[in-house]
Prior knowledge:
Elements: E1 11-14, H1 21-51, H2 58-85, E2 91-93, H3 94-127, H4 132-135, H5 138-164, E3 172-173, H6 180-184, H7 192-227, H8 230-260, H9 267-292, H10 294-308
Parallel strand pairs: 1-3
Antiparallel strand pairs: 1-2
Amino acid sequence: MTINTTISSNILEIQGFDISPEFMYPLFFLLLFVYCSLLFSNIGVLVLIITEKSLHQPMYILFCNLSVNDLIGNTVLLPQLMAHILSTKRFITYNQCVIQAFQSHTFGSASHLILVIMAIDRYVAICHPLRYSSIMTTRTVVGLSATAWGASLVLVSVLIGLTVRLSRCRSVVHNAYCDNASLFKLSCEDVSINNIYGLIFTVLLFGTSMGGIAVTYFRIAVICWIKKNKELNNRALQTCASHLVLYLIMLWSGFLTIILHRFPDYPDLRKIAYILFHVVPANLNPIIYGMQTKSLRDKITQILQRKVTPTL
């Protein structure tokens, strides 16, 4: 008969990636480059929107939400991951692990909900252009953004709260990062409640985001088909294609992470999917949305021209 022993130590060991010594530094510098480019692009967009009064419009509040979320989510993950790549012994305190899991899940849920709001914004702009300014007011967008963040914090707080109540009988996190599933796998107690709520959380979040995206894009497609306006169709394709591509990348990498937790034979694939879930949208968001938004693109062009034009 096996007796489960409760562990009181606050130190956990993270399994991380099994990396050959010759690949350690190339991978470290690759992640460092990715993180620096992420910081530069997202902070640049934030500073530009905050300092330029002409960009103080509802649409750009959504850009700010996305950039802030990307910065927080990746700052929680990438610096520690880079440090663990160069280290043979990878340790983290339990409290730090809980904070990382909380912020990581908040990043994921907020990303889904913010992208739904952006889909609604695109729907109003394309299908009701004359009413856009009266529907998508600053107050409306701020309210929708606050709802997205509030819902994410509440849902994730319950998710993590159900996990921290459990005692621990293991001290090794079989992952390259801390998330909720990795945390409750440290316990030998019955985790049925965690699995049930985790399933409800996942279905609610993915159902809301997939349903919201599907409905708005279907309505946009119907309007484009009915009006048969070439200019409208081109504008819809230009603004919606990148949004949909980024959403699908985030959706499938998130799905892979959740599904692969049930298949322990593919640990590295799960870790890579989760890193892609964080890194790819965060690097592409400011580039694609910034370049596709005329006002923001014009401001960036003006700044670059001022930098390269010699003073006479």
